[in-house]
Design a protein that fits this description.
- With about 200 residues, this protein is α+β, with helices and mostly antiparallel strands.
- About 45% of the residues lie in helices and about 20% in strands.
- The chain has two domains: about 50 residues; about 140 residues, Glutaredoxin (3-Layer(aba) Sandwich).
- The chain has five helices and ten strands.
- Helix 2 links the parallel strand 3 and strand 4.
Length: about 200
């Protein structure tokens, strides 16, 4: 009887353990399915939201607090060609374009062109170290609360926009097609081509 009781107890314990494991698996599986469903819904919501700046339409206005002090308001720059670059110190692709942006900025800054760097979800100390590393001199500031990023519906960093002298979104030619933005590191050639085209339009009235 003693041996049979021990076997019965062991069997009951095994069944309880198995039952507990199965319940945990069911709970984990249910949570995983719920998470996947939530991500699908969020992705669908983003696709439906779409929108954002359109070529030829006014660029969303904003005021940016600059790392070097003071503020910069986009609408105050009307009459100049503006480039807006969204970046972050933790973004490796941003590093691929940092030197090109600074180089072209120095070439065009005395020709009625303004570059603005909008720092996305970053630590100020890391951002300042990044700016110092690449010797970046054009205006930069942190997008507090991601208000500017949301207004421009950015999809990640880096992203670059051109704004014409009338304050409208200007097209960027990517692979031969006009786009409202460049999503990926922008090159010196793309920067010069876009700026030259907008400056020529300005000179032509």
């Amino acid at each position: 009887m003693g041996a049979m009781s021990e076997v019965a107890v062991d069997q009951t314990t095994t069944e309880k353990t198995a039952g507990g494991s199965n319940r945990r698996l069911l709970v984990f599986g249910g949570a995983l399915i719920a998470l996947i469903a939530l991500l699908v819904l969020l992705a669908a919501g983003l696709r439906r939201a779409g929108g954002g700046p359109e070529i030829g339409k006014p660029a969303p206005d904003f005021t940016l607090e600059l790392y070097d002090g003071g503020e910069l308001t986009l609408s105050d720059l009307r009459g100049q060609v503006v480039l807006i670059n969204f970046w972050a110190s933790w973004c490796d692709p941003c590093r691929d374009e940092a030197s090109a942006l600074e180089k072209v900025w120095r070439e065009y800054k005395d020709r009625g062109v303004v570059f603005i760097g909008v720092d996305y979800v970053d630590l100020e100390s890391s951002a300042r170290a990044y700016l110092a590393e690449f010797d970046i001199t054009y205006p930069n500031g942190l997008d507090k609360g991601q208000k500017i990023s949301r207004a421009y519906r950015i999809r990640g960093v880096p992203e670059t926009f051109f704004i014409d002298k009338n304050g409208n979104i200007a097209p960027i030619i990517v692979n031969g097609k006009p786009q409202d933005r460049k999503i990926s590191p922008i090159t010196e050639a793309e920067l010069r081509a876009g700026l030259d085209r907008l400056l020529a339009q300005e000179e032509g009235g």
